[in-house]
Automatic annotation (TrEMBL):
<dbReference type="InterPro" id="IPR011234">
    <property type="entry name" value="Fumarylacetoacetase-like_C"/>
</dbReference>
<dbReference type="InterPro" id="IPR036663">
    <property type="entry name" value="Fumarylacetoacetase_C_sf"/>
</dbReference>
<dbReference type="Pfam" id="PF01557">
    <property type="entry name" value="FAA_hydrolase"/>
</dbReference>
<dbReference type="GO" id="GO:0016787">
    <property type="term" value="F:hydrolase activity"/>
</dbReference>
<protein>
    <submittedName>
        <fullName>Fumarylacetoacetate hydrolase family protein</fullName>
    </submittedName>
</protein>
<keyword id="KW-0378">Hydrolase</keyword>
<keyword id="KW-0479">Metal-binding</keyword>
<feature type="domain" description="Fumarylacetoacetase-like C-terminal">
    <location>
        <begin position="30"/>
        <end position="230"/>
    </location>
</feature>
């Protein structure tokens, strides 16, 4: 039955599982950092020199959690994987200093920024927004959050992705052009950050296509691996 406070039933809150508890982390927004590893910037045809970061958004409803399958999306023939470190914020704020930015972090997870590369390329060529290429249903598979109180704040460590057991992406968190505290501080000058915000921090080189039947295994040192089946 529809709640008397709304003309339709409000959507369910998107959330992520948290390691060591049966409670979940509610998700408010998903910010994504573009081209944050030099080698990936090069493979996408861009200069790897450090420039101000840029961001795009996914919707919380794009999350696919708890080992959910990734349904191959419509209107595309070129879907790519991008493995990323996901940062979850427990505190918000504006104009957050770099020096205290990590105090706003609840924890970290392994995530995938799935991309309809052909639609993204078309949008780029026409000077249009990227949402059709980036913010489609199930485009943000994400693993279990591990609290920073348990593992600290990872500054280095391998980040990898295998497709059907074969290595595709490999890098190190230390190779991020913009580090986690810098990303939080910069983003907080553009938006008032909120508890529940997620930040996907960019992907190393080796992005490539997936097809139905593929199994993706994403791992970051110290975090809970993420396995996704493409259906």
């Amino acid at each position: 039955m529809t709640s008397p406070a709304y003309v339709i039933d409000p959507p369910a809150c998107s959330s992520l599982p948290v390691a060591g508890t049966d409670k979940r982390f509610p998700v408010h927004r998903i910010f994504c950092v573009g081209r944050n590893y030099a080698a990936h910037a090069v493979e996408m045809g861009h200069d790897p020199d450090k420039e101000p970061p840029f961001f795009f958004l996914k919707s919380p409803s794009n999350l696919a959690t708890d080992g959910a399958a990734f349904p191959y999306p419509p209107a595309t023939g070129d879907v790519h994987h991008e493995v990323e470190l996901v940062v979850a914020l427990s505190r918000g704020g504006a104009d957050i200093p770099v020096e205290t930015a990590l105090e706003h972090v609840f924890g970290y997870a392994v995530g995938l920024d799935m991309t309809r590369r052909d639609l993204q390329a078309e949008a780029k060529a026409l000077g249009r927004p990227w949402e059709v290429g980036k913010a489609f249903d199930h485009s943000a598979p994400c693993g279990t959050l591990v609290p920073a109180s348990r593992i600290g704040h990872p500054e280095a460590g391998t980040i990898t992705l295998r497709v059907n057991g074969a290595p595709r992406q490999a890098g190190d968190l230390a190779q991020m052009i913009w580090k986690t505290p810098e990303i939080i501080a910069y983003l907080s000058r553009l938006f008032t950050l909120q508890p529940g915000d997620l930040i996907m921090t960019g992907t190393p080189a080796g992005v490539g296509p997936v097809v139905r039947g593929d199994r993706l295994d994403a791992e970051i040192d110290g975090l809970i691996p993420l396995a996704v089946a493409v259906t």
